[in-house]
Design brief:
With about 450 residues, this protein is mostly helical. Among the domains are: about 5-30 and about 300-450, no CATH class; about 235-290. The chain contains 22 helices and eight strands. The chain has a two-stranded antiparallel sheet with strand order 1-2. It has a two-stranded antiparallel ribbon with strand order 3-4.
Length: about 450
């Protein structure tokens, strides 16, 4: 692969594809400089503060009328929509794009659904804060979040009647992976997490009166373990480092795992004290990451696809509900994972129907831009603006071949490009010609690959 293709590969994996600014800023930088820059930009982070924290009064909630409950549910849906839009805007515009890409990964890994918009925002910010930090700290932070404690029923986990849901998912989905613990381990871990909950302000509380202080056997160790000790034992188990590294590999490198390379990375990750920045830098600077075997080996998720459009093109959605509509149509809505296992991976996103829709989407968005009547998706119109003049001005000096390589990762098939060129023959406006060509590239199957 040449330098431009390496750049395309890195920006698709570590970000959401090239942004309009990247097209000119990164072209003359070395690969190592680009990696360092993206990590440097993501050293800091800014929280999303769209939803205001409000105290929960259980007694008041129980006394609400049906109409009041409906209004409360409506307000919650509206707040989660605002949260969805706020996060998507960060994906499109933030220089901390590597942190946002990692936050999206952890949003899938620690899949959680809640009707409380502040809980959802709080968990999202915890993931963002720790996305490139310590996995161990993030695990504890997430485990004590009101969103996760509520979603996995640990608020109801009491010594008289232990609830195993939280303890089981912590091991099966978040750390060790299936078949690396026993049912007795689940039962004893559940006992250790008794008493973990949150108060009416959504703050973590440890309720001593319902905690089981008895002796417990867990992963071959014995003691009066609490929840923190259980998580520490899990982190001390190298299987956790291997499980997380393998999952990151499949998300950022290739669904087909190279077990030797994963084992080497997992060893580095474990001995670094679960430092995610070290792990991700080890991946993005490795020669094998840029090998032909890993190039364009992943299929973009719907959110990655939409964010890729938004970073590449100067697009502004003038109706917030249009974004939600697009996510629903493609099958991935932020803050609404299908279950605690998260969303599908790779090829599971694509079938004949979804591929056709994905390839038609750039044209649908173009026809919905700048006051055009456009096309409907599920009987609703998309309302947006695209500044094609700005795109043209930023790319007019670029070699068309280099531009195609940055956007697609490869030159279009000569037959396809001939058809694209033919469709542009009647156009005299250079802005319109630029828009037509780029939209045609975005409609090719190659753009679905990362």
């Amino acid at each position: 692969m040449n330098h431009i293709q390496n750049l395309h590969h890195f920006l698709n994996r570590a970000a959401f594809g090239p942004s309009l600014k990247d097209l000119t800023n990164y072209k003359n930088l070395k690969k190592e400089e680009i990696v360092d820059q993206l990590f440097r930009f993501s050293e800091n982070y800014t929280e999303i503060r769209t939803v205001r924290q409000e105290a929960i009064n259980p007694q008041k909630l129980r006394s609400l009328s049906e109409q009041e409950k409906r209004e409360l549910r409506k307000k919650s849906r509206e707040n989660i929509l605002k949260l969805n839009v706020a996060w998507f805007e960060k994906m499109l515009t933030s220089e901390e794009v590597l942190r946002e890409k990692m936050t999206l990964f952890w949003h899938d890994h620690f899949a959680c659904r809640t009707k409380n918009a502040w809980f959802a925002q709080d968990l999202n910010n915890r993931l963002r804060k720790n996305a490139l930090g310590s996995f161990g700290i993030m695990l504890i932070d997430v485990s004590k979040s009101p969103a996760m404690l509520q979603f996995l029923n640990n608020q109801q986990n009491k010594k008289e009647n232990p609830n195993e849901n939280f303890a089981r998912e912590v091991m099966e989905l978040f750390t060790l992976g299936r078949n690396n613990y026993t049912e007795e381990d689940v039962k004893n871990a559940a006992r250790a997490f008794t008493g973990w909950g949150f108060n009416h302000r959504g703050e973590y509380v440890f309720r001593k009166q319902v905690h089981d202080f008895g002796r417990k056997q867990f992963l071959g160790q014995s003691g009066d373990f609490g929840g923190e000790e259980i998580l520490e034992i899990i982190l001390n188990n190298k299987q956790t480092a291997h499980f997380i590294t393998r999952k990151i590999w499949q998300y950022f490198v290739n669904e087909k795992v190279n077990e030797n390379q994963v084992s080497e990375l997992a060893n580095v990750f474990y001995h670094s004290g679960y430092d995610l920045k070290i792990l991700m830098k080890s991946i993005f600077t490795a020669d094998w990451f840029y090998s032909q075997d890993n190039y364009k080996s992943l299929i973009k998720s719907p959110v990655e696809l939409l964010a890729g459009y938004g970073r590449l093109l100067p697009v502004h959605l003038t109706d917030q509900k249009s974004l939600l509509l697009l996510q629903r149509a493609l099958g991935q809505v932020l803050f609404y994972p299908p279950n605690v296992g998260g969303w599908p991976l790779g090829k599971e996103w694509i079938d004949s129907t979804s591929l056709t829709f994905r390839m038609q989407l750039p044209l649908v968005l173009a026809l919905s831009s700048n006051g055009n009547q456009g096309r409907k998706i599920k009987n609703r119109r998309i309302d947006m603006q695209t500044d094609w003049k700005l795109f043209y001005e930023n790319t007019r000096e670029m070699n068309p071949k280099e531009l195609a390589l940055l956007i697609l990762g490869e030159e279009p098939d000569p037959k396809e490009q001939k058809l694209i060129s033919y469709s542009m023959e009647g156009l005299t406006n250079p802005v319109a010609k630029s828009a037509r060509q780029v939209l045609a590239w975005l409609s090719l199957p190659e753009y679905q690959l990362s």
